[in-house]
Specification:
The structure is a single chain. The protein is of the alpha/beta class and 215 residues long. The protein contains 10 helices and 5 strands. The longest helix has 27 residues, at 188-214. It is globular. It starts with a helix and ends with a helix.
Amino acid sequence: MAGWFRRLLHKPKPRSVESSLDASRSASSSPSSSSESAGYSPSMSLVSSVRLSPISMSDINASGSARWAKSYDVCICHSEVDLELVEELVSYLEGQPESFRCFLQLRDAAPGSAMVTELCDAVQNSHCWVMLITPGFLQDPWCKYQMHQALAEAPMANGRTIPVLKDVDRKDYPKELRNLYYIYMALKENSFKQIRDTIMHYLQELCRSSVNRVE
């Protein structure tokens, strides 16, 4: 009887169960494999696909929506040397079905106004802020000024400040943004979509919280 009981305990698992367990262990042991292949830093980057909330586009675009409380959905903070790339990003965002309202300094700043005033107004009148962090950004005092203004406006607001790294080593990532995940721009098309999804996610959460407060 004892020998039969020991054989029962040592009965091998079915191969299908072993395969399932092995696959599960393999998937859980490399959580960053997909993000690394896409060019994102596994420890500092934004998730490659933002989970969108079940708030409909009609809710966001409704006349009483919290979206219209500000003049712009997103302000693009960038160095002038990166203007061509930024214009591509703005064209992409404004061409989306959501018709995101973008503030582009050289296009939208009022002629004759003070630069400091325009930068501050752009930050205060935008829901989100994309920081295109490039070598030019790091050397531009106006970019750093606008970055500090955005952080002062909403230091802990998830999704409002969206750092995007391009041609910059991780060690040069601004220390002021170390508590925020970033998008690493390896493939432009993928990064543009990720920026779009992050903005959309914030607007959905904004509208959701606004509706909850009313209720």
